[in-house]
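Quick one: structure for this chain?
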Amino acid sequence: MKRTPRNLLLFGGIAVWAVGLVSCVVVGDRAIFAPPFIEGATLVGSSACAKCHSDVTRGFHDATHAHLTLKDDTGAVKNAACESCHGPGSLHVKAGTRATIINPKIAPDTCVQCHTNTRSEFSLPFTHPVLNGKIACTHCHDPHKGDANPSTGGTKSLSTSVNQTCAKCHPAQAGPHVFEHEAMREGCTVCHSPHGAVNDKMLKSRSSSLCYQCHFQQQTSGTQIMHGGVDHSANVIRGSCWTSGCHEAVHGSQVNSNLRY
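Got it. Here's what it folds into:
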């Protein structure tokens, strides 16, 4: 099916389909953004960035963010993908100091001004502490390489799995384990919402329904609730699978195939 080009505008986190207005615009397969504001600075283009940051720009050409373009003061579209996130770079090029450019590592608003759905997730009760500056989006995501689309992973690089990214900060949960929870092979995001959730530990659900996504529950004609050939009718009323004293080693166990400590 052929995709019809449309213009998507973002105003204060509200997406509006329109034509002729300027803020954040997708034209065909290219996006035009209003960059972060730096007083007194003007656009210089990505080629100016490459002179000092070749280690970053060398692999940037195939990144999702490399397709961002900007309009300068004259209305001309410039190849300024770097400045779409870091702000206009004329003062930075002239002074050569970090104080004259925006660093998204310490300014998460730079990311969430476009990723508005992620901003709302970070407002939930349990989140990774990004908005308060304790960690940055770039701890998990590499904006300079590869596909930034969350549906394909979007973590660090295409060769890095979601689990490997999480394991940098959560090595104990990653294992290796003698008895591995099969869900770990699918990825941490099967059970966890990485940006934020209403449940503790950013779980998608705080009840056994989280486990029932994968574990078939057989309801017999009587009062039995069968899981893996074992009657769980007396167990399910005691709490979730991991809090009822049964399957506490939810990521994997070193001693028990039923994921017990």
